[in-house]
Design brief:
Elements (H helix, E strand, L loop, with lengths): L1 H20 L30 E9 L9 E5 L5 E6 L5 E6 L3 E8 L6 E7 L7 E5 L28 E4 H6 L7 H6 L13 E4 L2 E2 L10 E6 L15 E6 L7 E10 L16 E12 L6 E13 L1 E7 L10 E7 L2 E14 L2 E17 L11 E17 L4 E18 L5 E4 L3 E3 L6 E18 L2 E19 L6 E4 L2 E2 L5 E3 L1 H6 L5 E7 L2 E20 L2 E12 L9 E12 L4 E11 L5 H9 L4 E7 L20 E6 L7 E13 L2 E21 L19 E24 L2 E14 L19 E2 L6 E9 L7 E8 L3 E2 L25 E2 L3 E13 L10 E9 L7 E4 L11 E4 L4 E9 L1
Length: about 900
């Protein structure tokens, strides 16, 4: 009741304030100038005179018309006279109340705002042709005291990171993988159980459905407290695709890498062979003989021949007395993607349909570091997507956007070789991957949003269905069993036998195997809805209350998942563009498909997961020599009674200020508290003091999924983006953060099942310092330089004994008195540089000339050693040492043809 009352007050209070203090009316008109039935048209009171109509069209730099752009008419004092929205043909008609000087302000997300002065006489002027430029990291924040950009708008916050299509061409982006590149600017503390989010043209997606050259922009944290999204601002990426053009344009890119240009890989016995070839591009233009119909075709073919580096310790032999196993293993990958979108404009609608395809494969996946070649597996991934989208300009102040996605995925996995898996803790994983399975999904996604602008209000509301899916899983994993070998310690903690010595002696510490049903069908259903209103209470102050609701079938009886959100912006100094922003809200977790899959398999033991610890009885290799596996009790999974959906409470303040020519710096702090966070507990774990008997002998592990964890975090953010001067433009993000919790997620178990709250410590992703920068020096000059700088503190790790001290077959025991995540892993530092230039092939026609671009990039230019894994098992000979590393310096060559 308290939460419902808070939500009601939060959403409706600002409406009452706005109605009492806002102007009584703002002029509006339709695109054609005719009154819209049921919508009144009001005018600002003036002396008796006749209004004059201004007409025109809005297009982008390629000539493609732009529907849905907002056109505002302001007088010399800055007061807004009227506001309209371009129709499906990009046209607008707006009325000036009398002759005089005005400004037309055109805005649309993803484009640079345009302000144009117009002088209105006694007769209507000629139709105007207005062109919006695609936003760049500079242009996205190009605001000044003389412009009409609304600094209080939530989407204009200075803590946003934006990578545009121009940035993709000018910055050192490895393999043109803009999703991974921008992932450096996400905050792991904002991610959900299902991971960080990805939005493509306003709809959630598994991947980018378009190739890099068809991307208009990628952005993070555009509106940190928006009720439209279930994740906080730095928990997801938003991809906006390019508009189709009404003239033929295209781009072709070729990217090449070869190990001959690379430095030596750390921990590799010799420089591993590597070669990467990427063929990518797009073509757009009108569909022949079909008026107002345009297409956008994009493709991407990536071929990579690389090697995984194995650095493990195995049982010594006469030929290998030290047991050092250090080899390069071929692990090629292939990826083919293409998409075709056809759009048509009719009446007040701009509709499109798109088909997107992906087929990728990996050989010897999973191999590397301490995983031997024999434990690798091959993957094949296919995804087909059909996307329907419609923008409906209902009236001059109402826009309806709807999307429907039909999606099919197929992901078979095949072992490199069959047989039992051998896990020797702290040394190697061998035998077999035991990963044979085939997963598939038929999914429907739907999203609809209505935007309504009137007076001081910018109201948005909508619904989204990210998953309405049928999933199938053919599970043949671990059918030959898995043996785990651990070190043996004396009572005083000294090492008696290493894990390898126990493996040589055939003395495993644990054994698991799966039996029974192979095929499983289950469903994933998720639903969300929201409403929010950005209210301009004063020219210098706006407030945006919102409310979101989420539901998912994993916890179908938890139906009270209302998430209030609130943000504000207060202009402290218009000239300096000094803006104080703040906000807060609740964010409910999204589970994903993994837990539903576990419930389908293990809730009623349709799949019998059998496991036994050496604490219960002496084990041997092979297991059939000492135990009747078929007689072992199964393991089960259940949801705890009263299970709730976890949620975060996040709130913060930031201060934005203009710096340099057209840049913005933002400094702010935020707090994060996770409530009812997921964890797993074995409620049938063996009891102390000997930990050798389970309370219910008819069941082995009884995993109970609980919502009983807690998380607390705080962060200080410093963000910059824009043009500092003519020599430098870019964006950067530095954050100091600290997160503590007592769980690492829904599949995580505590060390001692009888004392689950004793594992309080730093979160697994707790990096105190995180810095990322992308910038361009001397943009558009022959002597230009793209720069990427990334530097992070190490992540924490936990010291493990490698033993099953509690008899639960989890092997997550720590030495006496050692806390979870008590150690810090290696830091990371990386400097990337790129030079490139586009040469005009027809210098006499600079605006329309085809271009040929050449570039060379270097990643990890300084060849800084960056460790990626630390051996955490106390009894291994490499304990506490880095045993694998991120790639060394690599060079990338690229060619681009644009027409």
């Amino acid at each position: 009741m308290l939460r419902t009352a808070l939500v009601t007050a939060l959403v409706f209070c600002p409406f009452a304030i706005a109605q009492s203090g806002a102007p009584s009316g703002v002029p509006t008109s339709t695109q054609t100038g005719a009154p819209v039935e049921g919508v009144s048209t009001q005018s600002v009171p003036q002396a008796a005179s006749t209004s004059i109509n201004l007409t025109g069209t809005v297009s982008d730099a390629t000539g493609a018309i732009i529907p849905g752009a907002q056109v505002a008419l302001t007088d010399a004092s800055g007061a807004t006279m009227a506001t309209v929205t371009t129709d499906a043909s990009g046209s607008f008609k707006i009325s000036a109340p009398h002759a005089g000087s005005y400004s037309l302000m055109v805005t649309l997300a993803g484009f640079e705002s345009l302000s144009q002065s117009v002088t209105v006489g006694t007769t209507a002027p000629a139709p105007l042709s207005l062109t919006l430029a695609v936003a760049t990291a500079v242009q996205e924040v190009t605001v000044n005291a003389g412009s009409q950009v609304d600094l209080t708008a939530s989407e204009n916050n200075g803590d946003t990171d934006v990578m545009t299509s121009n940035d993709l061409k000018d910055l050192p982006v490895f393999d043109n993988d803009f999703v991974t590149a921008m992932g450096n600017f996400l905050d792991s503390g904002d991610a959900a159980t299902a991971g960080s989010g990805l939005m493509v043209d306003g709809v959630e997606a598994n991947r980018s459905l378009i190739s890099p050259s068809a991307v208009q922009e990628v952005r993070i944290n555009q509106d940190a407290y928006s009720a439209r999204y279930y994740r906080p601002g730095r928990g997801q990426l938003e991809i906006i695709s390019k508009q189709s053009a009404d003239a033929y344009h295209g781009q072709f890119n070729f990217t090449f890498r070869d190990s001959a240009l690379n430095s030596q890989q750390d921990f590799s016995p010799s420089k591993p062979f590597e070669q990467r070839r990427i063929y990518e591009g797009n073509l757009t233009g009108p569909v022949a003989h079909l008026k107002n119909t345009m297409f956008l075709f994009s493709f991407n073919r990536a071929e990579e021949d690389l090697n995984a580096v194995v650095n493990a310790t195995v049982a010594p032999t006469a030929d290998n007395p030290d047991g050092i196993f250090n080899v390069n293993v071929p692990a090629p990958t292939r990826d083919t993607e293409f998409s075709l979108r056809i759009g048509h404009q009719f009446g007040n609608h701009s509709a499109s349909v798109m088909y997107a395809f992906q087929d990728s494969s990996n050989v010897n996946a999973g191999v590397g570091n301490q995983t031997l070649p024999e434990a690798g597996y091959d993957t094949q991934n296919r995804e087909d997507d059909v996307v329907f989208h419609d923008d409906w300009v209902v009236s001059s102040s109402v826009l309806n956007q709807a999307s429907l996605v039909l999606e099919h995925t197929s992901n078979p996995v095949t072992d490199v070789q069959e047989g039992p898996q051998i896990q020797v803790n702290g040394n190697y994983v061998g035998g077999s991957a035991q990963s044979n399975q085939a997963a598939s999904e038929y999914n429907l996604r739907a999203d609809e949003m209505v935007s309504w602008t009137r007076g001081p209000h910018n109201l948005k509301f909508g619904v989204n269905v990210p998953h309405f899916s049928r999933r199938a899983l053919d599970d043949e994993t671990n059918r030959d069993g898995t043996y785990t070998f651990s070190p043996t310690y004396a009572a005083d903690g000294s090492l008696l036998r290493t894990a390898i010595q126990n493996q040589q002696a055939g003395d495993p510490s644990g054994f698991t195997i799966k039996q029974g049903q192979e095929r499983y069908i289950f469903h994933q259903q998720e639903f969300g809805g929201f409403i929010q209103d950005q209210i301009k209470l004063k020219p210098w102050f706006s407030i945006t209350p919102g409310l979101r609701y989420d539901w998912q079938n994993f916890i179908s009886n938890d139906t009270n998942n209302f998430s209030p959100r609130l943000s504000f912006a207060w202009i402290l100094n218009q000239k300096q563009e000094l803006v104080l922003r703040g906000g807060g809200g609740m964010y409910y977790d999204r589970i994903g498909g993994g837990p539903l899959q576990d419930i389908a398999r293990y809730e009623t033991a349709k799949l019998r997961l059998l496991q036994i610890s050496s604490n219960q009885q002496a084990l041997c290799f092979p297991i059939a020599d000492c135990a009747d596996v078929d007689a072992l009790p199964p393991s089960l999974v259940e949801r705890a009674p009263g299970l709730k959906t976890p949620y975060q409470i996040q709130y913060g303040l930031s201060l934005d200020r203009k710096v340099g020519e057209k840049g913005t710096i933002s400094i702010g702090g935020r707090m994060n508290r996770g409530v009812d966070v997921f964890r797993s507990i074995d409620i049938n774990a063996p009891l102390p003091p000997n930990y050798n008997q389970r309370p219910n002998p008819e069941v082995s592990q009884l995993r109970q999924i609980q919502s009983a964890g807690t998380q607390i975090g705080s962060a200080l953010d410093i963000n910059y983006r824009g043009r500092f001067n003519k020599r430098f433009t870019g964006f950067a993000w530095y954050t100091w953060s600290h997160y503590d919790n007592n769980t690492s997620g829904i599949t995580w178990f505590p060390q001692n099942q009888q004392d689950p709250n004793a594992d309080w410590g730093p979160a697994d992703w707790d990096q105190r310092n995180h810095f990322g920068l992308y910038g361009i020096i001397n943009p558009e000059h022959l002597l230009n330089l793209g720069v990427g700088v990334f530097a992070n503190s190490g992540k924490p790790w936990t010291v493990l004994t490698g033993t099953d001290a509690f008899g639960d077959n989890l092997f997550n025991a720590r030495p006496e008195g050692v806390a979870r995540n008590s150690e810090i892993g290696p830091d990371y530092a990386d400097l990337d540089l790129r030079w490139g230039y586009d040469f005009k092939l027809h210098p006499g026609d600079l605006d329309k000339s085809p271009t040929l671009g050449l570039s060379v990039s270097s990643f990890n230019l300084l060849n800084h050693p960056n460790g990626s894994f630390v051996d955490t098992t106390e009894g291994s000979q490499d304990f506490g040492e880095v045993t694998s590393a991120y790639p060394p310096r690599r060079m990338q060559l690229a060619m681009r043809f644009n027409f």
